[in-house]
Every structure is written in structure tokens, then in C-alpha cells.
Amino acid sequence: MTHARFAQCFLIAAAGLAAAAGPTLAAPDSSTPGRALTIYNQDFAVVRESVPMTLAGGVNHVTFSDITYHVEPDSVVLRDPDPNHNLKVLEQNYRADPITQERLLALFEGKTIDFQVTRGEHTEIVPGRIVRSGYVPHSPAQDSPFYYQPPGWVKSGAEQPLIEVGGKLQFSLPGIPLFPALTDDSILKPTLDWTLTSDRTGPVDAELDYVTSGLNWEAAYNVQSPAQGDTVDIVGWVTIDNQSGKSFENARIKLMAGDVNKIKPKIGEMNAYSVAGYARQTTNDQNVEEKAFDEYHLYTLNAPATLLDRETKQIEFVRASGVKAKTVYVYDGVKFDQNMNYGYQTFIQEQTYGTLTNKKVWVLREIANTDANHLGIPIPKGKVRFYRKDDDGSLQFTGEDTVDHTPKNETMRFMTGSALDLTGERRQTNFKVVNSGSGNSTADESFEIKVRNHKTTPVEIRVVEHLYRGANWTITDHSNTFLKTDSRTIEFRVPLVPEQEQTVTYTAHYTW
Fold this sequence. Notes:
Blueprint: E1 17-19, E2 24-25, E3 36-40, E4 44-55, E5 58-64, E6 77-79, E7 87-95, H1 101-107, E8 112-119, E9 122-132, E10 162-165, E11 168-170, E12 176-178, E13 191-198, E14 202-213, E15 215-225, E16 231-242, E17 248-257, E18 278-282, E19 288-293, E20 296-301, E21 305-307, E22 311-332, E23 334-335, H2 344-347, E24 356-357, E25 360-368, E26 382-389, E27 395-403, E28 411-434, E29 442-453, E30 459-466, E31 473-478, E32 482-486, E33 489-496, E34 500-511
Parallel strand pairs: 3-17, 15-26, 18-22, 22-30
Antiparallel strand pairs: 1-5, 2-4, 3-4, 4-14, 5-13, 6-14, 7-13, 8-9, 8-12, 9-10, 10-11, 15-16, 16-22, 17-20, 17-21, 19-20, 22-25, 23-24, 25-28, 26-27, 28-29, 29-34, 30-33, 31-34, 32-33
């Protein structure tokens, strides 16, 4: 078996730290081992940064700006790993309104500033009073179609600047705005301001942890079959998407697989992320270690990697050859009229209920996730694509399905489509209801199912029947041996040689 091969390719960026007068933040080393990411496949991550700072004994004010644009401020944990150092956060302020042209225009509303106007080769300075800036504070989530906008923000025209130039109003900027110098409290990107107390003076290598959205990963699998046979090769990829607004360089990357309970924001608080960026694929022999962690599974890239902002990175993490992917044909002939609304006493006695016919035979692939089948590893959920080689050796797409998180020693089943050369038909041949009252009512229903094989090879079709009229049933007559697969389902396994038709009949007896 060829086990998980995770390729090296993630990301992290140098931290930009600033400090107020007094304590200072050292420029972090881009190769520091304290930088780490744990990304969950539910569109969030836990970020851990090493934050070197020099503190004075007593109260300190520290500003840190190297955070993502989608940090959850109340998740922030700042601590000194040294248990002998008493470091406390007295107050934390999160500022998420970085300086932009629109923001500066808003700060100068009602005031006159200079605009640089170019006419041909001539440039001049024109004064203009900012009547309205066009800046409307809002979350990027407002770009989402699911975001509820207050009525005052909808089609209000508030996003249009209104400038007075020479005593006349215009709904556009007359030129490039020229602003005075920034004030000391201006921010260029989201920033955390801390008021700290320290019982010592000197350097501190603090640790910062926080939860952020904008980072996600998902798995995808390509299953390649030869021209004939069911032995396949499987290549698994992880796609990591960084839309957090921050790059990560030389980070230790971990991926958490499992359904972790995470409270989702209200619709009005949703973040919307740009899909801009670019994709890179990486594959090498850099192994990824997998281990159980709490109730989940954790995949760790052994070497530090870099994940740039707005980058999508694809990493090969599993490759297996000689895997048996059994092809299973299933005929589930029942079809219900979606326009009919039956009550319990109606459908149990209504003769036409469940008598519409589906003629398609489904194609399923079954893969045992075992050591004996050259797998035997926890499989993260994702999309599974199936390919088969044609006569000239080129791969042709034959269907896709999804897989949920699947532990070792479980069987995975995928529906890839319907078989063109296999057909079925199903019809009701008898129906009788006897209403005796006092809990002695009965119904007898008979069906005839025909399946046909127009392939050039023999097949087995699993004919699935649902005993949908009630929980109390017995099969009083049947033409073929059947399996009871659950409390209301039976299955006939019908072998067919090429161009053969077989007929399956049975009668179900219900009591209520």
C-alpha cells in the first residue's frame, strides 16, 4: 500500500508589529517555530503567532497589526508561556476600520481639501469642500446576497461622493484628493491595542492565539480505473484556500478533519470573501503525518510552508494503487408522485401509491477502506471523481460523488450514474385491502420486476424493494431468494448473462 503523501505547500507572512512609546515589539523572525496554523474544513482556523516584545514593569500599551481581516476578537488569547511571568491583559481594543481614500474623505466631511486635477499635460490644485464622502461603514458581508441591509442603506445614494467646487456641486471627485498627514491613531490595517501589566522589565516572547474565518481546506480524490476491471489507483488532494487578508510564511500547518461544533454567525454578520487569487499545485515526497486528536483526525505537514493571502494551494496527500473498487448495479424501481399528499390511513390503502416506475439502473462503486485493500487510513470528506481509460489509454470521466469523513475499516459507496445497457421495469400485479377494524386490517400487494442486460458481459443487478406501506409485514410469496437489509427494505440479487431478461415477483402482506 502507498500511504499518505502530503506535499509541502502552505503559507504564512512576516508579522508587522508596532508599538506605542515605551514598550517595543521586536521584528519577528520569519522562520520562528512559534508560527502555526490549524485549519478546519469548516471555513475557520486557529492562528498561533510568537510575539516578541520588550515590556516595562507595570502598565504597558502595545499595538499589534499583523492579524487577519476576519479575526474573532473575543477569541484572542495573549499569554507568556513562561509560568513565572505574570502578564495580564487589562484591556483589548480591536480596530477594524483601516484608512482608505473613502475613510479619509469621511474624516474631512464638511471641510475643504485640495484636489490634484490634470488637464492634458497641465496639472493644477483645485480646492473642494467635501459635502458627502461616499463612505458607508459596512461589513464585506453586505456583498453577500443573503445579507440584510437596513432600508436606509439600500439605493440611498449615500455611496456617491458630493463635492462643492467653485460654489457648484458635483457627484464625483474633481481629481486626486490630497490629504494632510495621518494622525498617530490612524491605522492601515486591522489592529489589536492592548493595555498590559507586567511584573518584570525586559524582553518577553509572548504567544498570541486567535480564531479567524477566511481559511478553509477540502479534500478531493481522483479514482482512475483501467480499460477493464475494478482495480483502481487513487490520488487524494487537499485544497487550501486563504482569503483571510493575511499571508503566512514558514508556518507549521495542521489540518483538522471532523465535524467540530462551531457556532455560525447570524446572516447579517456573515463575512464575504473575494474569490480572487491564483492556484498552485504541489506534489513531492514530503510526508504528512496523521493522528487521532480528541474526536477528530489531525493531518500535519512535516515541514514549514508558506500560504499567501488570496492563494489557493493544492497538495497531494494520499496515493494508493491496487485498490479494489467493486462495481455494483442497483435497480430501485419505485417512484413516488411528488404531487400527491397522502395521510397515513390514505397511503396504506391507496392502490396507486408507489406504483410509478423508475427504469434506470444505478451504477455504484464500493471501496473498502482497509489495509488489505491498500488503504486503511482516515478519509477526510470531499469530492470523489471517477475516470476510466479508453482503448487508446486516455482517461474519460465516468461520474462523481462525495464522501463523508470515513474512518478506517469502513466501506465507502459512491453513485456514479446510471447504466445505459441495463434497464428495469416494475409493475403492481395485485392489491387487496381488508378493513376489519379492531387492529385486524390487512393489505396484500404483489409486484413484478423485470431487469435486462444488454451488455456484452454478465452482470449482477441488486433489485431493491421498499416495504413502504407499514412496519408490520411479511413476504408470503417470492420467486427469488431475498435479503432483508433493514426493517423496511429487501434486496434480490439477480445474475444476468448478456441479452438476458429475468423476472422477479413477490407478495407482501401488511397488518395494522
